[in-house]
């Protein structure tokens, strides 16, 4: 699978994970809150059912807005703020039979699930500081917690936050490592190992797809098909390794003469295809002529012997993505014309 498609799929799976956490926290928690709210109706604690019903209604409203707008990022931030305010108001009030502190423990994991490592760590730190202030300055809150209970609660909450942080930090790192691996595999699959130029697979998959998706970025483009002349004789004279050196030198010559937006690909043994976006036919012919002259004038040295290498070139222009293959074929036809006319020349 091409890298971009794999990355998109991985992002889609990660969004699904956050979507499920959002739905779980909204639906299940609001159902639990409604049940506890009804149970506490009429009890002397007036504040508790108000907190429970209000938070449950806001959870449901948030998830409803998400289903309409599909804005996952915004829904997760609002959800985290709702969970945070709920937890703090519950700790302030004390909850049913003073059990509010138990409801704080799922909070760090929910935050990491909704916000990602950095933001979740920041929010958890803020929560911890606020809870410390509330618990160690009991005059500020309505509920009464035992001192030993408060200190053990803070200690165990710190442990939960650290474990969640380690877990999510390494999960994100392993995802990044897999992403890099996929990227380098894609690069390898699209690169010719001898010359380090792009290969035919790159043209057929990545480049053509990009041209079809964003034609204005590329068109009109020129194809320059290039084939080294009498390469078989070079191989026979200097051996396969000598021939390889010539291929590498030619690749280097392309790199020196092409612009950053141009593509040089090795499409066969001693055959290359140069793809030049946003260029006129006349300019493409000039580029081919410049490379041809430089190659012929640059002496190659092999086994202390200096010799000349020449190549033939065929040029064609492509105005729309549908003409891509026809354009490559025309450049190939022009190349054979150059070969038939005596080699070491440009036709187009
Ligand atoms: N050294 C080397 N040679 C290769 C490689 N791939 C293909 N070849 C050789 O390239 C030669 C191509 O020969 P031909 O197709 O007859 O072309 P040519 O000798 O260049 O003749 P014209 O193209 O007509 O000028 C063959 O001998 C192949 O073995 C490679 O990676 N390295």
Search tags:
single chain, alpha/beta, Alpha-Beta Plaits, six-stranded mixed beta sheet, two-stranded antiparallel sheet, 11% strand, binds guanosine-5'-triphosphate, transmembrane, diguanylate cyclase
Bound molecules: guanosine-5'-triphosphate
Radius of gyration: 34 Å
Estimate what percentage of residues fall within beta strands: 5-15%
Shape category? elongated
Measured distance between first and last alpha carbons: 36 Å
Runs with pLDDT <50, length 5+?
Answer: none
Compressed to H and E, one letter per element, the order equals HHHHHHEHEHEEHEEEHE
Number of domains: 2
Mean pLDDT score = 92
Structural class, by secondary structure, is alpha/beta
Helix fraction by DSSP (H/I, runs of at least 4) = 55-70%
Biggest sheet, in brief? 6 strands, mixed
* Total beta strands: 8
Count of alpha and pi helical runs: 10
Please list the strands of the largest sheet in the order they lie side by side.
1-3-4-2-7-8
Write structural notes for this entry.
- Helix 1 (3-39) packs antiparallel against helix 2 (47-69), helix 3 packs antiparallel against helix 4 (106-115) and helix 4 (106-115) packs parallel to helix 6 (147-189).
- 66% of the residues lie in helices and 11% in strands.
- The protein is of the alpha/beta class and 348 residues long.
- The protein folds into two domains: 3-184, no CATH class; 198-347, Alpha-Beta Plaits (2-Layer Sandwich).
- The chain has ten helices and eight strands.
- Strands 1-3-4-2-7-8 form a six-stranded mixed β-sheet. Strands 5-6 form a two-stranded antiparallel sheet.
- Bound molecules: guanosine-5'-triphosphate.
- The chain crosses the membrane at residues 20-38, 50-68, 75-94, 100-117, 124-141, 153-170.
- It holds the Pfam family GGDEF.
- This is diguanylate cyclase.
